[in-house]
Specification:
By secondary structure, the protein is of the alpha+beta class. The chain contains 18 helices and 16 strands. A hairpin with a 5-residue loop joins strand 10 and strand 11. The longest helix is centred in the N-terminal third of the chain and has 21 residues, at 26-46. The chain binds 2-oxoadipic acid and nickel (II) ion.
């Protein structure tokens, strides 16, 4: 009966959201067009090397979206919807203190977990939940009002949730039901035309535009959909030359001539869109909201905890230098810091245990000495193990906080005298109703499996090396 497996559903879901979003936000289509051109050009210039971090088919179809929900109940429901598409929670991001402006949310990302599922279609959705309990943002009275508001609204209907549960349990759905699931799931993330309660919206907006975007309206919506590019610097200038103003800088690592690591992102600001507002006197009048924007990203190699430590220290060093010479461009300072601290080659990143790789075995390159226990670094040095990068599939909290600024006009307010409410990955697991996976564990498991395979193929015992050192 034309059964659609979860990865097929996921690919169609990404496509259907893309069609919907393109109709609503035409600048998104421009972003996709420029991205496609940039990728074709990159492929033409670099040949097979362009596909080192994912096949061109994967990269061309690759998107991530972002949504925001209000309550624990809504978070657990959206998790059921994503499970229908083989997307599971990975990583915990606390954005409440990741920037100076008020971003009162905690987040996770729903994405495929298995390598072959990622290769088939890696669609992921960065999903944020309003941190209603945090008194730095919301007074006790407002917490009560928000809770009552979220208890009343229904983001996902019973039919969608039931179909989702079936799809998750059976690993897919038959044709007509698959179509219905896609239709309902896409509609759940469409911008609603319902009039917005003016006073309630503006009250929340005074605290944070993120709070009003989540709690000031009766539904949720995709707030951006992000294509992946192979050359984000070319994309940035391509968009600006079309007259689309991007945010001031590319978030994340700078462009440099060493290996691309983690994630580089940039966005254009939310565009003003006309919406209807219901006023206190009962009248309904048009007004404007800026809630949806465009973002694009380039993905690099996943870093190990040791590599991430180097990354975080480099980011702090860039901040320091920028404070000392405020006029300079962040990206330029960052490039210099990168050149001083990060290895220039993938082989060195692998040998130093700074990034995650799988390995290809080349038995002919085993040296005579490599018969007893041998370290990975030694095998890499002789060429008996050739590293193949594992792409970073997750997000960066600081960049995410930077991206949130795309629809913030001002700082909002945060009462630092209050104590932050506790949210962490364990609590998120309880909220979502499914284990929120640690990204490092997923990458490590993939690398370990590969090391076991080449150990068998090479006929040598591979022992952990003592050379896991920081790069500085
Ligand atoms: C999510 C922002 C985070 C990213 O790419 O880092 C994000 C949001 O604005 O809701 O999507
Ligand atoms: Ni994003």
């Amino acid at each position: 009966m034309n059964f659609k497996s979860s990865w097929e559903l996921r690919a169609k879901f990404a496509q259907s959201l893309s069609t919907m979003y393109g109709k609503e936000v035409p600048a998104y289509n421009t972003l996709v067009e420029v991205s496609t051109k940039v990728n074709e050009e990159y492929l033409r210039r670099h040949g097979a090397a362009a596909e080192r971090l994912g096949s061109i088919n994967r990269v061309t179809a690759e998107r991530h979206g972002a949504i925001r929900v209000g309550s624990e109940r809504e978070m657990s429901q959206v998790a059921r919807v994503f499970a229908a598409f083989g997307m599971y929670p990975v990583g915990f991001y606390d954005l409440r203190d990741a920037s100076s402006s008020a971003v009162p949310v905690v987040s996770t990302a729903f994405r495929p977990i298995d390598t072959d599922e990622l290769a088939k279609n890696p669609f992921r959705v960065f999903t944020s939940m309003l941190a209603v309990e945090d008194p730095r943002f919301f007074s006790l009275d407002l917490q009560k009002e928000l809770t009552a508001f979220f208890d009343k609204r229904e983001l996902f209907g019973d039919e969608l949730l039931e179909l989702s549960d079936r799809a998750a349990a059976d690993g897919g759905l038959a044709g007509p039901e698959a179509d219905r699931l896609l239709e309902l799931a896409t509609a759940a993330f469409e911008l609603s035309a319902d009039p917005v309660d003016h006073d309630w919206y503006r009250r929340l907006e005074a605290i944070s535009a993120v709070a009003s975007d989540i709690g000031g309206v009766t539904s949720t919506h995709i707030n951006h959909l992000t294509p992946r590019v192979l050359d984000i610097d070319a994309l940035y200038s391509g968009m600006e030359s079309l007259g689309i103003k991007m945010i001031d800088e590319i978030q994340g690592p700078p462009g440099w001539d060493g290996p691309d690591v983690l994630l580089r992102q940039t966005s254009f600001k939310a565009l003003g869109e006309e919406r209807l507002f219901r006023h206190a006197d009962g009248s309904i009048k048009p007004g404007e909201l800026r809630v949806r924007f465009g973002e694009v990203e380039a993905r690099g190699i996943a870093l190990t905890p040791a590599g991430r430590d180097v990354y975080d220290r480099m980011v702090a060093e860039v901040d320091n230098r920028l404070n000392e010479s405020p006029g300079q461009a962040r990206q330029e300072i960052a490039r210099a810091v990168w050149e001083e601290n990060l290895p220039r080659t993938e082989a060195e990143l692998a040998a130093k245990g700074l990034a995650f790789f799988t390995f290809a075995a080349h038995p002919e390159k085993l040296s005579g000495a490599q018969t007893g226990p041998v370290t990975l670094a030694e095998l890499i040095a002789t060429g008996a193990a050739v590293p193949q990068p594992i792409v970073y599939e997750d997000f960066l909290p600081r960049s995410a906080a930077g991206i949130f600024q795309s629809n913030l006009a001002d700082e909002g307010s945060k009462n630092e005298a209050e104590r932050a409410a506790d949210y962490d990955i364990h609590r998120m697991t309880r909220i979502v109703g499914r284990e929120v996976r640690d990204p490092y564990e997923l990458y490590q498991a993939q690398q370990d499996a590969s090391v076991a395979e080449i150990s068998a193929a090479l006929g040598v015992e591979i022992v952990p090396d003592a050379v896991v050192v920081s790069a500085s």
